[in-house]
Design goal:
single chain; mainly alpha; two-stranded antiparallel ribbon; 7 helices; 2 strands; globular
Length: 158
């Protein structure tokens, strides 16, 4: 029996845990941050270059933060904090980036009536809020559609 395998860049374990994937992502990010540290050490102060590197690499961390444990989120945030210190630029917290991306994706699903996930975003009779999905497990409660519905209902309406 295989403990884990990599499929389309995501490490999947037999227990469907994100820990192995987060560890691999953090390891890869630390390798890339080493390069940035060396550039900074040699007094290469091209802020545009450092910020470009930071924008490209930590973005890959944010997609990993959706349905992972608190310990894994702390690992991912520590990498973002390290990159922030190296680039000397202010960057948002990993949870706020996940929230904004989740809302943006939910908005694109709602605006596209042919999207297969549109059925998960049913409005209540008032028309102001979306029907919450019934969930029995925390894994399902923290998945995309229930989280997106919760975020849409909590966000201020336009």
């Amino acid at each position: 029996m295989v403990d884990s395998f990599k499929f389309l860049g995501v490490t999947i374990t037999n227990s469907l845990s994100w820990s192995t994937h987060v560890d691999a992502t953090v390891k890869k990010a630390q390798q890339r941050l080493y390069f940035l540290r060396k550039l900074k050490k040699f007094s290469i102060h091209s802020h545009k270059f450092l910020q470009k590197c930071h924008r490209e690499h930590p973005v890959r961390l944010h997609y990993s933060s959706g349905n992972c444990s608190v310990q894994d989120r702390k690992k991912l945030q520590s990498v973002v904090n390290s990159a922030q210190r190296i680039t000397q630029a202010c960057h948002p917290h990993i949870d706020s980036v996940y929230t904004s991306r989740c809302l943006r994706k939910a908005d694109s699903i709602i605006r596209d009536p042919s999207h297969p996930g549109i059925a998960f975003f049913q409005t209540l009779p008032s028309g102001r809020r979306y029907r919450s999905l019934k969930t029995r497990t925390s894994r399902h409660r923290n998945s995309f559609f229930p989280t997106a519905t919760r975020l849409l209902n909590d966000s201020p309406s336009d």
